[in-house]
């Protein structure tokens, strides 16, 4: 039997981002392979010791990664595309690219803000046990005196997350290779058994999307029937299993992991006598668990292990590090270590025969705002906007941010440390705005931006200025590889108490005759990149943020701002995993955006911006935002979005400069991309702009690239 408490996974970046620093030093050649390995080994040892000290019953292993656990699985199975095999370090080449070799495609891991590398599987990609990472970690733990349960991405999820290798025959799907993958997993299980491993956890979160049910049945019938293997826990998370639950229950596996937070309770009889690894402590938020309610739920099942709803990868390490937080708020919070303690406390109480109490009913979903706010019909408002904007055809603009220089970061740090006072800081920001305005005038940009120098981050900045948000000092969460974010925490009703951006926009506009765009982050994106309260429905939280953005839009318009951009790059990120729930979400998300922007009036031009978000899946919703101008990532993905934009009846700026790369495109290359846009969109509605903000680029790159954008636009205008 499993001991009575466990977790599905734990953060791996290090409490002070030790792994981030070590990785970046190793990549730059500042840290030797041996020293880098030592950092990893220390982090793993600290994790096991920490979990044991918290009295967790069963410890996971193989939750560490040098970049991404999906990539680790591909390497374990030898599913490495040939083009990377000759690289000095194929793992790093797949993750980050190498000379002339772009990295694997990266995309979002389910509906989280973690990103994984997409394996490429073709008809003859090797699928065989080639690596030993889980085995090494198990041994490493044994040497420290810990028996562990290795965690590996399961075969169905691995193949569902893969894409067909380039050149695969039409109709081929990586899932067609399931039997080959199962051979490799069978070998892995036998190898782990030989190490004395008692349990293995195979993660199958993809099953909550409703896909892969028949394949899961086939896979676990086969793996379950093996005799030379450890016991199998198949873990699902991020939602309910639906039809996949009876499929798994009918196989020979020993335990099923369910996300009871997001998935809701199941009929105990539906488990087919398997042990339930009951995810009652949420791994997706930072709130304390209602222990009585969780206990009540746990006591419904005969054979149960208390667990987290998913890996704790998505939450920060330890609340104790946050000494600055309001004590009343701290009371309500739990980070990874506090959640582990909750799991242990629940297991103790369950063992004592406590049964908890049923939870009190949650606030029902409000039906607020299902109607769409609207402004005058597009042709009418476009006409009035055109009159006072007086823009040339093919207007050139940027997405908002200009390079964040070392001076700016140093000034922000000095302000926080108290060595720079507020007026001094504000003078620096104004000087930066002036520099950026002059630069854009000199380059011949038509619609200017102030450059966002006052913002460390497009969400955190607003969080710091709105009521109902808290920000942390060490609350880092891995986004991908060595990149981490510090999501703000929405803990109460969101309210705007004073204008946030108006003074900077107004200052920028005072410096120039050309229009300067006001620049805001949209309600969905602010919520998607935060930890969200859960006592009221998500759509109500978005509604509150929309109200705050609406007030800011109105104040910008009243201050005479003729163009306001409200970015929604995360529009797709809150999309429910199950298709049948997606429409409802998109409806209220679009309604929130329109509510936020309709306070602008008809003669203010509204822009929106989207990027890295598989926009093709939500094109209709983007159209529904009803923005006068939509700028959207296109250069990076080779113009793939263009095929879907012909239905757009308003202004459109598909990116013609990929800002994700240090490369500067020539004027001719930009011109070619622009011509491709002009084939699908009538010239009078086309805008010329980069794919995204310029924040991560350097000034020399930006100046050269923007010069080429202006040149290309002018040539096409002359034509
Ligand atoms: C991730 S979208 C970024 C938009 C923002 N206005 C910027 O330019 O940085
Ligand atoms: Zn962007």
Automatic annotation (TrEMBL):
Entry annotated with the keyword Repeat: yes
UniProt binding sites for L-methionine = 399-401, 452
Q: Where does 5-methyltetrahydropteroyltri-L-glutamate bind?
A: 20, 113, 483-484, 529, 567
For this UniProt entry, the molecular function terms from Gene Ontology, in alphabetical order, are: 5-methyltetrahydropteroyltriglutamate-homocysteine S-methyltransferase activity; zinc ion binding
The residues that the entry says bind Zn(2+) are: 609, 611, 633, 692
Cofactor: record remark: Binds 2 Zn(2+) ions per subunit.
Q: Which cofactor does it need?
A: Zn(2+)
Keywords for this protein: Amino-acid biosynthesis, Metal-binding, Methionine biosynthesis, Methyltransferase, Repeat, Transferase, Zinc
List its EC numbers: 2.1.1.14
**Record GO biological process:** methionine biosynthetic process; methylation
Which InterPro entries did the record assign? Cbl-indep_Met_Synth_N, Cobalamin-indep_Met_synthase, Met_Synth_C/arc, UROD/MetE-like_sf
- The catalytic residues are 660
* EC main group: transferase
Q: Which residues does the annotation say bind L-homocysteine?
A: 399-401
The record ties this protein, via Gene3D superfamilies, to: 3.20.20.210
Where the record annotates domain Cobalamin-independent methionine synthase MetE C-terminal/archaeal, the positions are: 394-714
**A Pfam family in this protein?**
Meth_synt_1
SUPFAM superfamilies noted in UniProt: UROD/MetE-like
Q: In which pathway does it act?
A: Amino-acid biosynthesis; L-methionine biosynthesis via de novo pathway; L-methionine from L-homocysteine (MetE route): step 1/1
Q: Which residues form the Cobalamin-independent methionine synthase MetE N-terminal domain?
A: 5-300
Instruction: Describe the function of this protein.
Output: Catalyzes the transfer of a methyl group from 5-methyltetrahydrofolate to homocysteine resulting in methionine formation.
Q: Which family does it belong to?
A: Belongs to the vitamin-B12 independent methionine synthase family.
Descriptive protein name:
5-methyltetrahydropteroyltriglutamate--homocysteine S-methyltransferase
């Amino acid at each position: 039997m499993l001991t009575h408490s466990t977790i599905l996974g734990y953060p791996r970046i290090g409490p002070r981002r030790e792994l981030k620093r070590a990785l970046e030093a190793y990549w730059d050649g500042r840290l030797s392979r041996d020293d880098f390995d030592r950092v990893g080994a220390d982090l793993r040892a600290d994790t096991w010791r920490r979990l044991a000290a918290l009295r967790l019953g069963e410890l996971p292993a193989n939750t560490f990664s040098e970049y991404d656990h999906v990539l680790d699985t591909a390497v374990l199975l030898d599913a490495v595309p040939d083009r990377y095999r000759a690289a000095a370090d194929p793992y790093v080449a797949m993750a980050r690219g190498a000379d002339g070799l772009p990295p694997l495609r990266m995309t979002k891991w389910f509906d989280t803000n973690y990103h994984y590398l997409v394996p490429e599987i073709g008809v003859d990609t090797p699928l065989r046990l080639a690596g030993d990472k889980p085995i090494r970690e198990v041994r490493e733990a044994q040497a420290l005196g810990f028996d562990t349960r290795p965690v590996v991405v399961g075969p169905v999820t691995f193949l569902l997350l893969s894409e067909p290798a380039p050149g695969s025959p039409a109709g081929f799907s990586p899932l067609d290779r399931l039997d080959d993958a199962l051979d490799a997993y069978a070998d892995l299980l036998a190898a782990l058994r030989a190490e004395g491993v008692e349990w293995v956890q195979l993660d199958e979160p993809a099953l909550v999307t409703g896909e892969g049910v028949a394949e899961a049945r086939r896979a676990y019938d086969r793996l379950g029937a093996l005799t030379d293997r450890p016991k199998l826990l198949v873990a699902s998370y991020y939602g309910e299993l639906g039809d996949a639950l009876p499929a798994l229950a009918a196989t020979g596996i020993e335990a099923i992991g369910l996300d009871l937070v997001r998935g809701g309770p199941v009929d105990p009889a539906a488990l087919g006598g398997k042990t339930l690894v009951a995810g009652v402590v949420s791994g997706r938020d930072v709130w304390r668990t209602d222990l009585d309610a969780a206990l009540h739920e746990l006591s419904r099942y005969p054979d149960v292990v208390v667990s987290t709803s998913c890996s704790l990868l998505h939450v920060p390490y330890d609340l104790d590090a946050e000494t600055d937080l309001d004590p009343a708020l701290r009371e309500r919070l739990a980070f990874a270590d506090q959640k582990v303690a909750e799991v242990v406390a629940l297991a103790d109480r369950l063992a004592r025969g406590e049964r908890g109490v049923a939870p009190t009913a949650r606030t029902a979903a409000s039906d607020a705002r299902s109607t769409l706010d609207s402004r005058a019909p597009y042709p009418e408002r476009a006409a009035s906007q055109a009159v006072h904007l007086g823009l040339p055809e093919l207007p050139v603009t940027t997405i908002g941010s200009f390079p964040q220089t070392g001076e700016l970061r140093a000034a922000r740090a000095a302000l926080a440390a108290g060595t720079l006072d507020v007026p001094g800081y504000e003078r620096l920001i104004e000087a930066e705005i002036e520099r950026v305005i002059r630069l854009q005038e000199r380059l011949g940009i038509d619609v200017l931006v102030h450059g966002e120098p006052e913002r460390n981050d497009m969400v955190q900045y607003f969080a710091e200025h709105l009521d109902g948000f808290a920000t942390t000092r060490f609350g880092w969460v891995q986004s991908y590889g060595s990149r981490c974010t510090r999501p703000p925490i929405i803990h109460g009703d969101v309210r705007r108490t004073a204008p946030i951006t108006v003074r900077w926009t107004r200052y920028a506009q005072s410096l120039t005759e050309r229009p300067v765009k006001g620049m805001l982050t949209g309600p969905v994106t602010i919520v998607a990149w935060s930890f969200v309260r859960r006592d009221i429905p998500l759509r109500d939280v978005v509604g509150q943020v929309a109200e705050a953005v609406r007030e800011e839009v109105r104040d910008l318009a009243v201050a005479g701002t003729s163009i306001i951009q409200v970015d929604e790059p995360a529009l797709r990120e809150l999309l429910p995993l199950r298709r049948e729930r997606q429409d409802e979400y998109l409806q209220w998300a679009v309604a929130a955006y329109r509510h936020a922007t309709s306070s602008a009036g008809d003669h203010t031009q509204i822009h929106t911006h989207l990027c890295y978000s598989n926009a093709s899946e939500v094109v209709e919703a983007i159209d529904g935002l009803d923005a006068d101008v939509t700028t959207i990532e296109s250069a990076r993905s080779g113009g793939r979005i263009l095929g879907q934009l012909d239905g757009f009846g308003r202004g459109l700026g598909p990116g013609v400069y990929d800002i994700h790369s240090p490369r500067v495109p020539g004027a001719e290359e930009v011109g070619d991309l622009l011509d491709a846009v002009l084939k699908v969109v009538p010239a009078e509605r086309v805008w010329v702009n980069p794919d995204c903000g310029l924040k991560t680029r350097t000034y020399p790159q930006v100046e050269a690239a923007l010069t080429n954008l202006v040149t290309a636009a002018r040539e096409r205008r002359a034509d």
